[in-house]
Amino acid sequence: MKLTLLSSSLALFLCQTQAFAPVSPSIRPRTSVLAVTEGETDTYFRAIKCAEGSSSTLEELEKLATDLENVLGSQYEEGIENCEREVRDRMDVAHMLRLRIELQLRMDYLKGENLFASDVQKSHDRDERRRFKELLEANRDKVVDGADLGLW
């Protein structure tokens, strides 16, 4: 009788400990895809399109990245392994959006204030003008008198 009571108490204790085991805050399995709202789906879809390269403003990229980073747990997948992968992949999309922000800021700097790019452009323009003048002079020497139509 004592053995049965002890084993029953142990079984009850084990079941209760498993029932109250902490679940990782980043993993919150959902029971259905229907738990995702239409607005959330639209946001996620736009974030993926922007990560793939769709035209967007820096503000939109920032907002989408922040929205993805603030989502807790899994939105679509079930099971710990799939939930963890979904969260990892969602964070990867957010990271891609952040990289696009950085790239755009660097491109703006390159086009506007980058000293090296400015110096190279000036040098290239000088070289192009010099080559054009050399070709012009070379072609002037090839013109037969009276064939230039008075353009020189």
From TrEMBL:
Keyword Coiled coil applies: yes
Signal peptide annotation: 1-19
Residue stretches in coiled coil: 51-78
Alphabetized UniProt keyword annotations: Coiled coil, Signal
Protein name according to UniProt: Uncharacterized protein
Species: Cylindrotheca closterium
